[in-house]
Amino acid sequence: MRRLCRLGSGLTAPFNRFAKSNVANAAIEFGLAMPILMLLALGGFEMTRFIIIQQKISKTVTTMGDLVARSPSLAASDITNMFNAVDHLMAPYQFGANGRVILSNVSNNGATVKVNWQRFGGGTYSAVSKIGAQNAVASLPAGFTLDVNEDTIVSEIYYNYRPLVAPNIIAAQVVYKVKYYKPRLGALTVINP
Predict the structure, then answer these.
(1) Over the stretch 71-126, which tens digit does the pLDDT of each residue have?
(2) Quick check: is 79 in a domain?
(3) d(Cα 100, Cα 122) in Å, to the nearest integer?
(4) Reduced to 3 states, what is the DSSP secondary structure of residue 149?
(5) Which domain holds residue 151?
(6) Looking at the whole model, is its pTM more than 0.85?
(7) Is residue 10 one of the residues assigned to a domain?
(8) Residue 16 within a domain
(9) Number of domains in the chain
(10) Omega cis (within 30) before 35
């Protein structure tokens, strides 16, 4: 019987030495800390990516509205050229199938506040304007009013955000932003051919 106990203690001796070793303690601590460190690293990466994409979206919607509002007059080719700039503004993030920019002109003609024109571009994501359709009554936010014969440029952007590595940290979502600009050099209620 004693021999069996000695034999058993002989089998556990390497484990006992390993448990008393500093290397073993470090390995166990590393094994326990690794999942937490990975979660922090992946979550930090995804959070940073989401914040940068939000900044790019804000910059893009602001730039597009500002470009239109600065124009003395608009032609269809001008708007096409503006939409071509969206990929550069969103770089290095892919915009194409993930996003869409909507530019609209809304004016108050005395009787109604309506959408005079509306153009979509910059990407192919399927989205409609929250302001309203072309030639329809405009749906402006509460407190936003236009005087008679006043118009505004509305720049809207949709971006279909998909997380790369941590879908439980930041969920997939469609990001929407809108900006309003007063035309600087006169009314822009018509797009010239």
Answers:
(1) 899 899 999 999 999 999 999 999 999 999 999 999 998 889 999 999 999 999 99
(2) yes
(3) 6
(4) coil
(5) 26-192
(6) no
(7) no
(8) no
(9) 1
(10) no
